User: What shape does this take?
Amino acid sequence: MFALGTEVSIEGQGAEALWSELAELEATLTRFKPSALTELNASGRLEHPPTVLVEALTHALKVAKETNGLVTPLILPALKWAGYKDSFKSAQVTEGEPPAVAQWQAVRVSKDVISLPQGAELDLGGTAKTWIVERLSQHLTGEFVIDAGGDIFLKRSELSPIDLEQPFEKGTYQLLLPPGTFGIASSSLLKRAWKGGHHLIDPRTAKPLSSRWVQTTAVGPSLCTAEVMTKLIFLEAYERLEPGYLYLAFDQEGQLWRFEEGMWTVA
Amino acid sequence: MSTTTKAKFNKQESTLWLLTACLGLGMGVGAQFVKGASVSTVAQSISQTSQTSNVSKVVASSPNISVFRQPVFRSVGRTRGS
Assistant: This one.
């Protein structure tokens, strides 16, 4: 099923009942169609916000705090400047300098009202996508596999083979996970990209980030955390990587590297 | 159809059935081997043999997670940049 801007599949006991909840969550949190989020972005203030928006934004701000602002929902004005307004397929880079990314600390969230700093707009992006997936998984009993456009959250009693797509269409690696609960997240500078830009903004420069990597992957117990870690790898903030996760990255030549004991080595 | 021709046909038909049965049995065992409960056994075997094989070499491993250069098992998902 197409949802969250990508193909989503849910396998597990109770999966059928989740599609309507998924649709409701997306309808509230999307920036691409009229929603509570777009209403907030347009006016900078939203009274009596939907509980889901409060919870998703609270999660996003928690991530911003934990990453010292490196992964923040406040990048939307910069993303639009970079060209990604309604569709990356028609994106064009804007002339001049991008608007600075607002400070996440200036956002006010309560169950009664949400307010944004002047000129700020939110894009909950991948942070919301993985938050939604983990939220949906709580309604599934027993084993499950949820795949949201290549970000996967699963719980299995058997080994789980997961294909890892290489950039530049060079082929496919395969991860073999032990029984248990795992989040597998990947990010790419080659997807949702256009001439002169892509969708991953560096909040420090307010421009599409530059990195030695073109595709990053993180695997660990939380999909939300794994997704954040893929962004931190791009930003080369390795000191902030969560211990206990597997980190892989492809460089500009398509070579696979792994992060181990604080350094990258060719895999 | 003469008796000789009929006997010849039956012999060919029997051989065909035998081949089909063997093929079916082989495919069934093969599928069982790769799929499901036997994955851990296969994984262990491949991890051991891959040290000397170029077919599917383990290229990285973190505690309990292995990475192969190419798919070895039928996957339950595919991760890619989004």
Notes: Helices of chain B lie at 3-34, 39-49. The radius of gyration of chain B is 22 Å. DSSP finds two helices and three strands in chain B.
